[in-house]
UniProtKB/TrEMBL annotation:
Residues 13-52 form the MoaB/Mog domain. Transmembrane segments: none annotated. It holds the Pfam family MoCF_biosynth. The lineage of its organism: unclassified sequences, metagenomes, ecological metagenomes. This is MoaB/Mog domain-containing protein. Gene3D superfamilies: MoaB/Mog-like domain (3.40.980.10).
Amino acid sequence: MFSNDEQILMKAEIIAIGNEIISGLIQDTNGRYLSKQLHLLGIDVSQITAVG
């Protein structure tokens, strides 16, 4: 159990999948949007990674 003085810090990493993202053909706007939404929930996004 956690007391009222203790806080749980949650972190997340966003992984964007798609060749069009890593080739630079389009900008990853979803990662930015998701990061803002997670921040509102108290979740710290440590990084956004793009993979193809």
